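Appendix C. Worked example: AraC family transcriptional regulator
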Amino acid sequence: MEKNPDMLPKGVLHAVLGGKKFSLQRYEPSKEIGYFVQHYWVVRWDLRGQAPYSQTVLAHPNVNLVFEQGASGIFGVAPSTSSHMLAGQGHVFGVKFKPGGFFPFWQKPVSELYGTSTTIEEVFQVDTAALEAEILQLPDDQAMVDRFEQFLIERLPQQDPNVEKISQLVARIQADRNVLKVEDAVRLSDMTLRTMQRLFDRYVGVSPKSVIQRYRLHEAAQLIDQGVVSDWLEMSIALGYYDHSHFIRDFRSIVGVSPQQYRQIQSL
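Step 2, the predicted output written as structure tokens:
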């Protein structure tokens, strides 16, 4: 189902503006692959005769494998926001691994991918250019999903119980607005603080603190985009912040502007 602007996922900044420029659709993986992969996604745009559009994203704590003409690769979690220029007509096919789900393929600390990328060849020993051309030339989204499912199922590693443990914990952090500190996440788990930090470095690629911060800021940006924020302090409290200034510092450090400046951009 095509997403309308209000249904674009958290992390797509200025979603109301972006929803006018591109479409985003997501597809569930098969059961076996779903142990490692959260979903597939396809972005399509047609800006022929229009000015290019730069879409900014605040990344989730996930590794993404992306097929884009001339720019395919495997991308770790970005330190802050990242922007992608859309021009002409095109599409991108992506694979969003679960938090922790890429490690069994990579077999190295996922923190080594933080803020950077690696080639598909390095991980899967395949000719990226040939696979990129094959997938992107397929006639529709489902055909791309089916082709990559076939590719991946031939290369599935053994299931690692830490993947399920980590992905479930990250989902709980995302859902619970009261999780603002690492100690709050520890209370949700059966891990010690040190164990959690070690597993997040190895499997997720960023710290528990970073995961918590990102999800709270996703919610804040979504509320601003929807135009429903009338009181900054009230929103801060609703998101679990006890100190409004702490919220502003977090927002500025990751998004790059203050919440007020972000709202002004949205209204332009």
